[in-house]
Specification:
alpha/beta, 5-stranded mixed barrel, 10 helices, 11 strands, 22% strand
Length: 269
């Protein structure tokens, strides 16, 4: 079964196939070969231990590093007339990168109701770059974007706040509803965690003190006080014996209880 990766989260990849979206993981061989699957990769899926795995990745036509994605056909460069102010330097740079990788750049101008879009249009009217002006009130420009998207693998890029999500929401209103529902579920989850699990919790000071005394990491905080040589010796012995750093420091006479206490008060331990 073949398909292309739509997204990757926490080591899991979601592949769009003729049978729908399939959640899978890549085989370990890719890690050994230092190959990381990215969104847009055309992959072959196989079943292993009852689950789907990525068995092969087809050669990439192009690949972008940040964010990682491959095999793009069209890159929409979204710029707003204001808030934030458009930068033709950024648009030119992104356009050049896209063309160099064999990707068609398309400039999309948003927020034309807040400021005049003629500046951007005139800047690129003599170029070969398609220019689309978006007007959400009339829907102008949305059909042009749909035309470019149809049958192609596309991505939107642009500064934060230029309106990338607004474009997608205008074409697929359900996306906005899903975003709001997800946000509501997340907030409800926060409230549940706070009221049922967090409120009323107090620290067990004795237990926390035991964690500090028995943690090898305490050596790092003691290093400026007892020196690197002593820190290394104590860390190795604590790791080998399972004993706490606090007790070993006292046993070897490196510091007294009072000195460790002063170090703790100064926030070093």
């Amino acid at each position: 079964m073949t398909g292309y990766i739509t997204k990757g989260i926490g080591g899991f990849y979601y592949v769009k196939t003729s049978e729908g979206i399939v959640e899978c993981k890549p085989r370990g061989i890719f890690r050994k070969q230092k190959i990381t699957p990215v969104a847009g990769d055309v992959v072959t899926l196989e079943t292993e231990n009852g689950g789907a795995v990525i068995a092969a990745i087809a050669p990439r036509r192009n690949v972008f590093v940040r964010p990682p994605m491959a095999n793009l056909d069209v890159l929409f460069l979204v710029a707003s007339t204001t808030q934030p102010t458009p930068s033709t330097l950024v648009l030119d740079k992104l356009s050049a990168i896209a063309v160099d990788k064999g990707v068609q750049p398309v400039i999309v101008c948003t927020k034309s109701d807040l400021a005049e879009a003629e500046f951007l249009r005139s800047a690129y009217e003599k170029s070969t770059l398609p220019f689309i002006r978006i007007d959400y009130a009339t829907g102008e420009g949305l059909d042009d974007i749909r035309h470019w998207i149809n049958g192609r693998l596309c991505a939107f890029c642009g500064n934060s706040g230029v309106g990338k999500s607004s474009i997608l929401n205008a074409m697929e209103p359900v996306m906005a509803q899903c975003d709001f529902e997800s946000a509501e579920l997340l907030m409800n989850g926060f409230d549940t965690l706070r009221t049922l699990c967090v409120d009323g919790i107090t620290a067990n000071r004795e237990r926390c003190a035991d964690y500090v005394k028995n943690s090898i990491g305490v050596v790092t905080a003691l290093n400026p006080i007892i020196g690197y040589k002593n820190s290394t010796k104590i860390a190795k012995e604590a790791l080998a014996t399972g004993r706490g750093v606090y007790d070993l420091v006292l046993e070897h006479g490196i510091l007294s209880k009072e000195e460790i206490g002063r170090a703790s008060c100064r926030g070093r331990v």
